[in-house]
Fold this sequence. Notes:
Layout: H1 6-9, H2 13-23, E1 29-35, E2 38-44, H3 48-54, H4 72-79, E3 83-92, H5 100-106, E4 121-128, E5 131-141, E6 146-149
Parallel strand pairs: 3-4
Antiparallel strand pairs: 1-2, 1-3, 4-5, 5-6
Amino acid sequence: MSRLSLEQLQPLMKEMNDWCMAGYPNEACGLVVETDGVLSVLCLPNLQDRLHALDPERYPRTATTAYNLDPRAFMKVEAAGGSVRAIFHSHPDRGAYFSDEDVLSALGGDPTGEPILPGVDYLVISARASGCDDAKLFSWSSGLGAFEEA
Length: 150
């Protein structure tokens, strides 16, 4: 599967930005899905606060600084004939960057590992009280053994 580009995602940005602002000041999240060659957005609830309330030791961060997707969303996309091309989430008041926590999560908790979702890119959207002001896309480079900005 080829990497996505910000140009390919441009037609979807308004929907993703609107979702990120609806979740502000918490992180918002969702998926970019491809079905029959067409990209679309699947906005998903951020489960982080619920997980934090259930087990604060395992999930010490709240939705203001973390996101957690329902993993069943991936299975539903595939069952409907689609494929997940990217995971998007917002960074409220912190800028669009792929944080150490983001990298660790994408690597399944193993800092020396490989992505747990091969071929899936990560879009980080900067959300501020005035609106979304930046977005950056990150992809795994097997040659570098690291994520790089697309």
